[in-house]
Design a protein that fits this description.
alpha/beta, Purple Acid Phosphatase, chain A, domain 2, 7-stranded mixed β-sheet, 17% helix
């Protein structure tokens, strides 16, 4: 049974807040027969709620999933269904489950004329039902043509491909989003902090997105998380260098990216999470998901959770302050 919703004003925006936890039975799958795993326990309670428009929570905590696709183009039968299903089951098994997750792009490996984009997104979305919270997706290069240098959208070099259209239709329109770039406001139940999650589409880059990003990052919040598919080093993506230039003019807490099929702290406040089922990089530790949690001192702790054991990678854990500086 879903909890009641109400409109609440937050920093001049009206936010539809789902206060309470969604019914975890919706689309949940049975993990019987899987090796026993110890569920990670999150700090804090489970008060408040988040829906497609944002929300309010007692403590900021969210999961991060990145790069889920088959190894070969148009090989829908080879989609890593078992891995991504288990990842979403793991996120649901956290105690308590986080109210939302972000994903860093690349949900398909489909040619623009092969007709497999919709089928591969359907596989991903069926796996996603194992998690009762909201998932906010970033666009990847495979949601354009597959080339890192591709640029989709009306008026851009690659136009509106089937991959791009299916991503908008199946993953963003249900969230009420018409564009591949958007922002989500999250606030504290007691008003003690505010956060914004800013989703950049580096493979649908144009002047309108640049202006929007500058204005969005200019609105002050305690925490700012920028979610983009490609890391800062992937400069062939049309929107990476321009968005990095805009980000350099504004404070932000953490840049969350994917594209590389591994996980890594790739900069002082950039983290790569790209181990969600795509073929792993040769040195990648393994499949799993990221977990970000607000500590009592206000810093954000970032962990990587192995999808088979549900154990944190103790060699990876780090924390940043709200302004992005390292925290002990």
């Amino acid at each position: 049974m879903r909890s009641a919703r109400r409109l609440t004003s937050w920093f001049g925006l009206w936010v539809l807040c789902a206060c309470g936890t969604r019914d975890a039975r919706e689309g949940a799958s049975d993990a019987a027969g899987q090796p026993a795993r110890a569920a990670a326990r999150l700090e804090g309670g489970a008060s408040g709620g988040v829906d497609a428009t944002g929300g309010r929570v007692d403590r900021l905590r969210f999961a991060i999933i990145g790069d889920t696709r088959p190894a070969s183009v148009d090989d829908t039968a080879g989609y890593p269904t078992g891995i991504i299903t288990r990842i979403f089951q793991d996120i649901q098994a956290l105690q308590p489950p986080p109210p939302f997750a972000v994903s860093t792009g690349d949900y398909m490996f489909a040619s623009t004329g092969g007709g497999q984009a919709a089928a591969q997104l359907d596989v991903y979305l069926r796996a996603r039902r194992a998690f009762s919270g909201v998932v906010f997706p970033a666009m990847g290069n495979h949601e354009c043509t597959g080339a890192t240098a591709s640029n989709c959208g009306d008026g851009n070099a690659d136009g509106v491909t089937d991959n791009y259209a299916q991503f908008l239709s199946k993953m963003l329109q249900p969230l009420g989003r018409a564009a591949p770039y958007y922002a989500v406001p999250i606030g504290a139940l007691d008003g003690s902090w505010s956060a914004k999650f800013v989703f950049v589409a580096a493979n649908a880059w144009d002047g309108a997105q640049a202006d929007w990003l500058d204005a969005t990052l200019g609105r002050p919040t305690t925490y700012t998380f920028v979610v983009r598919h490609e890391p800062a080093a992937a400069t062939s993506a049309p929107g990476v260098s321009p968005s990095e230039q805009i980000m350099s003019r504004h404070p932000f807490t953490l840049s969350i990216v994917g594209h590389s099929h591994t996980y890594d702290r790739s900069g002082p406040n950039e983290v790569i999470v790209g181990n969600g089922g795509a073929p792993l990089a040769p040195t990648a530790p393994g499949y799993g998901f990221g977990l970000a949690e607000q500590r009592a001192d206000g810093a954000i702790r970032v962990d990587m959770i192995d999808y088979q054991t549900m154990q944190r990678d103790q060699s990876f854990t780090f924390a940043v302050r709200p302004d992005g500086s390292p925290a002990p």
